[in-house]
UniProtKB/TrEMBL annotation:
Protein name (record): NAD(P)H-dependent oxidoreductase
Signal sequence interval, chain numbering: none
Keyword Flavoprotein among UniProt keywords: yes
Transmembrane segments: none
Keyword line: Flavoprotein, FMN, Oxidoreductase
Domain of life: Bacteria
Amino acid sequence: MKKLVVVSAGLSVPSSTRLLGDRLAAAVSAGADAGTGAGVEVQVVELRDLAVEIAHNLTTGFPGPALGAALAAVAGTDGLIVVTPVFSASYSGLFKSFFDVLDRDALAGKPVLVAATGGSARHSLVLEHAMRPLFAYLRAVVVPTAVYAASEDWGAEGLAQRIGRAAGELGALMSATAGGAGSAGSAVAAGAVGSGEAVQVGGFEVVPFAEQLAALRVP
């Protein structure tokens, strides 16, 4: 059974951020049940409950018991869903602080689905200008479809389709893992792309950048 961790940075109870994370996890689980029947074990990490330990870790360098367990869960998962509310046109400080204390190699080659919530659709670009670069820096394999839910999106047409598409992409990458010891992007993380040959990652063909440039050269 694959492991899926949802990291939610919602601050309120109930939280639209947690709700979006739950819907994404449910869609991944449903897809896994329909595809392989193997199922997915889901664990939710609520950063609101870890705020004090995160602050202590930033100042002392040592995680408390609850934070240590959360960090271990993220490092050991087969797939990761991360959801943050939008504050000041970016991810929340609590969200960023959690990934600041995570081991820098913990997400290398790991499939990640990024999502965010906000009061207005005008903040949807946070997914591309803030969240995707953060996880690219951490060398995660970020799925192509990111999900943003504004206040008016709940119950409206379109959100369910985006959730389904993103969940399907994450599920495909998770099913490419080898017994939980590797990662969906293991070929990329191990340098297979550096060999100059295209590789398959979760059903997607990853073409080396040098090869793409060569194809654009004019004779």
